[in-house]
Amino acid sequence: DFIRLSFYSQPDGPVMGNGSFKSSDLLPGTLEAFYVAPPTKDKLPKNCPAGSVLLGAISYKKPSPKGKQIVSYQVSFVVPPTKVDEKPKDSSSSMCTKSVHERLAEEVRDAKVSFLGSIKHGTEEERCQWKELTASLKSEYPNYTPLLSKIMECLLSESVKDDKIIYNEEVIDAANEVVDSVDKDELLKFFSVNYDPEDDKAEAVQRKKMEATRDQLVEALYQKGLSLYEIDSLK
């Protein structure tokens, strides 16, 4: 029996699953890096306990048509321990760990964030009321990324009538608040672990939340870059 391994052209390929490495011809003295992904759980032999060492070989040339032996190098993989069996969890059981008051508070918070996006702020009076509400919500829910992202989204939906430089500076400030609210180390640590589709529903819910935070961070950085470029072009 053998296990076919996957090769990638980028360091994060084994984690993210993209950028597969394709064969290439190299001139003598030319260097090229590639990255080998560990075998997935479903490809491991059934009778292989944790701690077992799987041995294989790798060569860097195509088989010779004349049957000449090709130099190969040994590769090894230590089978990791299996997860300790736990009682099945789902999103509803994780919610049960929170009190009714906590769950209600979260529902109210998210409803306020959603309502913020529906408020019109085209006139000067509406804009003043909108700013008062955003200030109140930021005070009530400090550093809450979805709220800050919604505020930036509302600014971007405005039609620019006044000073474009001032408007883009407001967008940059809003984007900076989104960026500052995100725990980048936690985000990086989370996505550095390969996702297992067999994980329970609670972990799937957590992943969805982290993916949303990642997307909000990327969007904030993107909009900040656009606004910086816009300001530079207006000067």
Structure, explained:
The strands form 2 sheets. Strands 1-2 form a two-stranded antiparallel sheet. A two-stranded antiparallel sheet has the order 3-4. It is mostly helical and about 240 residues long. It starts with 5 loop residues before the first strand and ends with a helix. It is about 50% helix and about 10% strand. It comes from Papaver nudicaule (Iceland poppy). This is Tripeptidyl-peptidase 2.
Question: What is the count of DSSP helices, taking H or I runs of 4+ residues?
Answer: 8
H-E order:
EHEEEHHHHHHH
Spans where pLDDT lies below 50 across 5 or more residues: 85-93
Number of strands: 4
Molecular shape: elongated
Q: In angstroms, what separates the terminal alpha carbons?
A: 67 Å
Organism: Papaver nudicaule
Protein name: Tripeptidyl-peptidase 2
InterPro entries: TPPII_C_sf
List the helices and strands and how they pair.
Blueprint lengths: L5 E3 L4 H4 L18 E3 L15 E6 L14 E6 L12 H6 L3 H17 L7 H17 L4 H12 L7 H18 L2 H8 L9 H34 L1
Antiparallel strand pairs: 1-2, 3-4
Structure characteristics:
single chain; 235 residues; mainly alpha; two-stranded antiparallel sheet; two-stranded antiparallel ribbon; 8 helices; 4 strands; 49% helix
Summary?
The chain has 235 residues and is mainly alpha-helical. It has helices at 13-16, 91-96, 100-116, 124-140, 145-156, 164-181, 184-191, 201-234; strands at 6-8, 35-37, 53-58, 73-78.
